Amino acid sequence: TIRRPSVHLIEDGQGRRSWDLRPDQPDDGRGAKLPVIHRLAIHEGRLTLDEQRRDMKLDAMITAREARSPRDGDSGFLLDGKGTMNGAPLTLRVTGGPFVNIRRDRPYAFTADLAGAGSRLQAKGSITRPFDLGRFNAVLTLEGRDLADLYLLTGITTPNTPPYQLSGNLSRDGSLFRFADFSGRVGSSDLSGSLEVNRIGQRRRVDAELSSRSLDIDDLSAVLGARPRVTSGGTVANSGTPGKLLPDAPLQTDRLRTMDGSLSYRAGSVKANALDIRQVRLGADLKDGVLKLNPVSFAFNRGELNGTARIDATRSTPYSAVDFRLSGYPLESVIPARGGAPTVTGRVLGRAKLEGPGASVHDLAANSKGTISLVAPQGRMRSAFAELLGINVGAGVGKLLSGDQSTADIRCAVADFTVAGGVATSRTFVIDTDVVLAKGSGTIDLGAVTLNLGIDGESKKPRLLRVWAPITVSGPLTSPRLGVDVSAVATQGGLVGALATLVAPVAALLGFVDPGLAEDADCGALIANAR
Predict the structure, then answer these.
(1) At what angle do helices 503-513 and 521-530 cross, to 10 degrees?
(2) pLDDT tens-place string over residues 238-286
(3) Is residue 377 within 8 Å of residue 412, measured between CB atoms?
(4) pLDDT per residue over 363-409, tens digit each?
(5) Which conformational region is residue 425 in: left (phi greater than 0), alpha (psi within -120 to 50 degrees), or beta?
(6) What is the dihedral angle through the alpha carbons of 351, 353, 358, 359, rounded to the nearest 10 degrees?
(7) Facing residues of 306 across strands?
(8) How far, in Å, CA of 386 to CA of 433, rounded?
(9) Which residue of 60, 260, 443, 468 is 20 to 30 Å from 354, comparing CA positions?
(10) Distance between CA atoms of 511 and 505, rounded to whole angstroms?
């Protein structure tokens, strides 16, 4: 029997703990094993915790007593405390049965409720061997505004998410914690799977296998740093601030350095979205502060985007390298229809290989170097727009005004940019159709997320009325403006004859984007004819 005990626990900023009786020996993470006490009573106990690394303070009352009568509802164990974490309210309540006739072979039931840092954890289970805190089983429910907030309560690094609610089976066996067969929702998406947390040497390791039957792509955007707007019911209304094509939320590198682990995620289907994404696969491996993403895979209605990324978070400003390949994506999904009919049809292939420093997706793009390449090996374009690539007033404008829906073949279209300091400068830019050969030049500023391109065209057929002036494409990437630069009058001739000079760079680019593409469709014919 203990009366009015007072226990004060302190962990300083260097991780030294006042209750560690053997500070020179490494913590094996297996939990405390106390001697069996068959009969225990605690009257008016008090426990305080001051954990300075997480700015957490807790002041709790502890009681443990037997029932005075069969109707006595106050019997058993109770720890009830309040405090703060990073200045926000924190509450903890743990209950259990009375400490009477405790036996090793009989589980001891308990409940726990922890709320703080925008999260709430509720557990109901049992310690399989009483007084051995290294083994227990419980049903755990988690809910909160952002899974990343759990780092403050658990020390486990998780990505940013919309509001969530998950429930599953939590077990502990020494240093191994397992959250198995959990399911629930994150934002507007379902999420299920299993997660293991273990201590390997002096480092924590987290391995997770996750899946969604139906993913809302706006929920995934929060992982990349977008700031979702959430309704009162917890549904994500939009993926982020309007106009933020490249999220600027910083990566918390200090958290990535605290643990190792792996992740696999698969979404069997994706709710209707503007990009027409149908399936998602993600894989990640984190070791010693270096995060490798492989695969990063998005399957569209037609085509796929597959790639890898490496993020070195061992320094204060992470350094990243990405390599993504796009295959078979429909041009009609990129360029909007006009008058109810597609402006352009065909498939586009591409590759982006970039690297650079940056604490966010936007900062990486703004400081990156590398290449961005796009190829359309074949397709069709509205004849009116094909004519206008060469600013043929008589044919192009006439067809537009008459609503002509006829099309011209795209023999090949290539856009190849070299990137330095976050600015992509055109290296090869050519569009070859039945009626017009067009060549372009210009830049794309990945930091400002704007573009400034000009396209000069030459008709392959004689025209009576013609204005020689380049088409301009400028403004934000999310909403570019088309125009005609009437101040720059082009001189006739030279483009078709210059096609032969593009053969070598185009042939090299096709192999870079997709090996074997040089032999595919009309891009191969373009090169052969130019020779």
Answers:
(1) 160
(2) 444 444 567 777 888 888 898 999 999 999 999 998 888 999 999 999 9
(3) yes
(4) 999 999 999 999 988 888 877 666 666 554 445 444 554 556 678 88
(5) beta
(6) 50
(7) 297, 325
(8) 7
(9) 260
(10) 10
